[in-house]
Amino acid sequence: MQTTGFATEELVINMGPQHPSTHGVLRLVLALDGELVLECIPHIGYLHSSLEKICEQRTYVQIVPFTDRFDYLAALANNFCYVRAVEQLMGVEVPRRCEYIRVLMAELQRITSHLVWLGTFGLDLGAITLFLWCFREREVLLDLFESTTGQRLLYNYMRIGGLRNDLAPGFIEKARAFLTSLPDRMAEYDQLFTGNRIFRARVEGVGSLSREKAIAYAVTGPTARGSGIDVDLRKTEPYSVYPELEFSVPVCDTNDCLARYEVRLEEMRQSRLLALQCLDALEKMAGEPHAAKVPKTIKPPAGEVYVRVESPRGELGCYLLSDGSDTPARFHWRAPSFANLQALPIMARGGLVADIVAVLGSIDIVLGDVDR
Amino acid sequence: MPQHNVLDLLADMASGAKSIVDGMRITLHSLVFHEKVTDQYPHRNPDDNYQPGPGYRGMLGLITDPETGQLNCTACGQCQKVCPDNCIAVEGEGKGKERKPVRFTIDMAKCMYCGLCAEVCPFDALTMTPKYTGSVERIEDLIWDLDRLRAEAEGMPHISQVE
Amino acid sequence: MNEPSLTGRLIAWLADLVRGFGLPEPLVQIVGWIAGCLAVVIAILTTVIFLIYVERKISAWIQVRIGPNRVGPYGLLQTVMDALKLMLKEDIMPAASDKGLFVAAPLLVFATAVVTLCVIPWDSDASGGELSIGLLFISSVASLTVIGIMMAGWASNNKWSLLGGLRSAAQMVSYEIPQALALISVVVWTGTLSLREIGIGQSGWVYEWNLFKYWLWIPALVYFIASIAEVNRTPFDLPEAESELVSGFNTEYTGMKFACFFVGEFASMFLVSLVFSALFLGAWHTGVPALDKIVPGPIVMYTKAWLIVLVMMWIRWTLPRLRVDQLMGFAWKLLIPAGLVSIVVVGVVISVGLTY
Asked: How many domains are there within chain A?
């Protein structure tokens, strides 16, 4: 290639593991031509703590608190997935009231998780105010979770065959009050952020992920739905009491960061409707049991099971292989963040450094989920 | 978006400017009207120390029976068995109802506050208290023995009462 | 220049006081200049301390927080303590850095911000140093800042800093053009480069202010936006974009060197606000002739600058950050044409003789 006399070279630069917007300890190796990203390679594993292996050393009961720690922003969704897997293995029927509480918690958890995502996405784009507003709302929900589960982040709430305890007194009223005020808050976010010209310029057409590529990379959740793939396990493979609830799955086919943003915002609205329906149902079911009878030592029959649920980040799967003892012979966790992160390079290539930050924010990864 | 004539350009500029003014209106509104939500840890306000709710899964403690002055614990070892982190060590003496722990240590630095131990306890002996600050200067100080655990639960609401 | 203003009289009185010591007249003049510049610089640095406090409070209130409230009454001494902390901090210099440039960069940034302050007119007969080409001086000295920032980016020997430095070079060079074009509109309108005379031209009622004359609100807007970019504030804070470049050009700086950058940024923010109020907002005039006789000019200037700075803060805590190509596009495709158009409009208005 003929050059102009100046020798130029690519700038290879480490983004992370310590970097403000890699959402944890993720390391991206970037090859830059000026600000243009030629190549982006995620290096993962900095948060690896062999949780799957640890779980294979623990009894089925002891695993529940460990599942909290995979995707720590959506601990209840993890609980949900794991206990469903064990219940399926054992063939346990769970009371309907318990299922409703589980779905309620999972949907509230989806709102908190998306609130964190929205806030950090704003932070990535330089809008700091939105972050604190989102955390203000999240705090209300965390207080609610705390009152019922006893903790604010790692809830360890669901049990095989039931729940740790019933909803705290006043939970339903407080949750309803919060959900009623949520649309006003979201209107504020819209006014501050969604309509903002600078924000739109930053996300429109940025980080394109085609439908074909999304399927090829097994991308799931809002990231897939932003690429026009109408897949949501709550609809396509209904579990728990979702068939009895009314909601819609937002899908957007513009493939860019804005599509993923809008899908998540709409999901928050849908989760709100779902949670309200659960609250109504729970009020009618007051007094019913919240747990099924299960043996004290849990020894599922030999066999294997793969159960998946729709976590805030996508398809969350739990594979269990039982040999009839009280610990699983094999425990595998299908982490949505892990699969979604693999699609980052094709979204980031050809963009600018600032676009990587936007794309990374828009696919909403949790490093605990990626590395496990 | 591409502009094809001057009018489009001006309209685009106007809508862009409006979006920015909208944003500034909402931040001004927030500045003036929104309630400030900061909790000033450790003081919500100077008179009111922050206390989490009674179901809070905080530091562990051993419950004393108020009538007999004896620990409820019979050193059955269920908590030791269920603990996923292996941070509980119990040794007991005596038979049947008379069995009492002689050594009961919990390594609070290892504990992950899952609450399984308090949950399996058949005698309402081990509980989690709403206490949430446990910082010490030396990590060995977080290995709590029988006396310390008994003192921790003193006057604290028990997690079992919540359910 | 018939009767001296309140500030003018105070200065004359002080000069007499110095003369009382029996100093020769040229020396009195020199002492006057030095004292004037020092007074301005000290006043502005004190202001910066409180600007930082106010910035933190405003951001806190917008973000439903409380903000600094522990050090001193209402947390007023927070910044003072922060400055003390920065002074006591270990001064770390990366081993592979270019030592000379590394030290010089913050000084240059700080010095340019301060030097420009000296030519700001505070009243019809009061300023640190009166220059007939004040505007030219300000825009040329202020453009030195970019050299300091590039030096910092290069000397740190850190790739993120380098990116920040390069971004800042591109940004500042681009935004100086619309800024200068906006100034030219004003210069064409007023026919002078002296800030003092521009100020005098705006005496009288509010509608005499340049902002309200014909199309001068366009250069005013252009100048305002370009100034925000010049002082690296959101939405144009790309050189230090913390979510992309860690902290940009000042990533490797600690202690007082960092403080120099920080104070320099706030000082230049106050500076551009002062220039803006001198050019477009009637300088030291209150807009009501009767009040002008009572209220001293410096106070009016100071208040106006504060108001503009508050608007800048308000903008900062509202908007996200632009991307680097959008930033350049905005300058070259929008601000520069607007600046050029406004020069033409002002020129036509003057040559047709529509002045009033």
From this structure: 1
Cβ separation of B20 and A196 shorter than 8 Å?
A: yes
- In a domain? residue A44: no
So what's the pLDDT on residue B53?
Answer: 67
Total count of domains within chain B: 1
Asked whether the beta carbons of residue B115 and residue A61 sit closer than 8 angstroms, the reply is: no
Q: Is A187 a member of any domain?
A: yes
Give residue C355's pLDDT: 58
Q: How confident is the model at residue A268 (pLDDT cuts 50, 70, 90)?
A: very high
Q: Residue B34 and residue C64: Cβ atoms within 8 Å?
A: yes
Q: Nearest 5°: CA angle at A337, between A63 and A186? A: 105
Give the range of the structural domain holding residue C85, as residue numbers without chain letter: 80-352
Which secondary structure element, helix H or strand E, spans residue C50, and what is its range? helix C25-62
Residue A231 within any structural domain of the chain: yes
**Does B103 reside within a domain?**
yes
Query: By C-alpha distance, which of A299, A281, A287 is closest to A244?
Result: A281
CATH number for A222? 1.10.645.10
User: Which residues of chain B lie closer than 8 angstroms to A197, CB-CB?
Assistant: 15-16, 19-20
Which of C166, C243, C324 lies nearest to residue A126, judging by beta carbons?
C243
Q: Flag whether C338 is in a domain.
A: yes
List the single best residue of B31, B32, B33, B40 to mutate versus C (max C Cβ within 10 A): B31
CATH number of residue B88's parent domain = 3.30.70.3270
In-domain check, residue A338: yes
Interface contact C61-B40, CB threshold 8 A: no
* Interface contact flag, A196 B19, Cβ < 8 Å: yes
* Interface membership of A139 toward C (CB under 8 Å): no
Q: DSSP characters for C66-90? A: --S-SSSGGGTTHHHHHHHHHHHS-
d(CA B23, CA B10): 20
Using CA coordinates, name the residue in chain A closest to B28: A192
Tell me the nearest-neighbour CA distance from A350 into chain C, angstroms. 13
- Euclidean distance between CA atoms C178 and C222, whole angstroms: 7
What residues make up the domain containing B62? Answer: 57-161
Flag if B27 and C334 touch (Cβ within 8 Å). no
Query: What is the tens place of the pLDDT at every residue in C217-261?
Result: 888 888 999 888 888 887 888 777 777 777 778 888 888 888 888
Q: Is residue B93 part of a domain?
A: yes
pTM of the model as a whole: 0.87
Q: Which of C65, C318, C334 sits opposite B27 (nearest CB)?
A: C318
* pLDDT score for B162: 47
Q: Which residues are CB-neighbours of A325 under 8 A, at least 6 positions away? A: A299
Q: Give the count of domains, chain C.
A: 1
Contacts of C230 (CB under 8 A, 6+ apart): C142, C145, C172, C175, C176, C179, C268, C272
What are the pLDDT digits (tens) for B25-55? 888 888 888 777 787 776 665 555 566 766 7
Answer yes or no: is C142 within a domain.
Answer: yes
Q: B53 — contact with chain A (CB < 8 Å)?
A: yes
Q: What is the mean pLDDT of residues A51-78?
A: 89
Quick check: helix, strand or coil at residue B91? Answer: strand
Tell me if chain A has a CB within 8 Å of the CB of C237: yes
What average pLDDT does this structure show over A174-179?
91
Residue ranges making up the domain that contains A354: 51-371
- Mean pLDDT estimate for chain B: 80
What one-character DSSP code corresponds to residue C315?
H
d(C-alpha A3, C-alpha C29), whole Å:
60
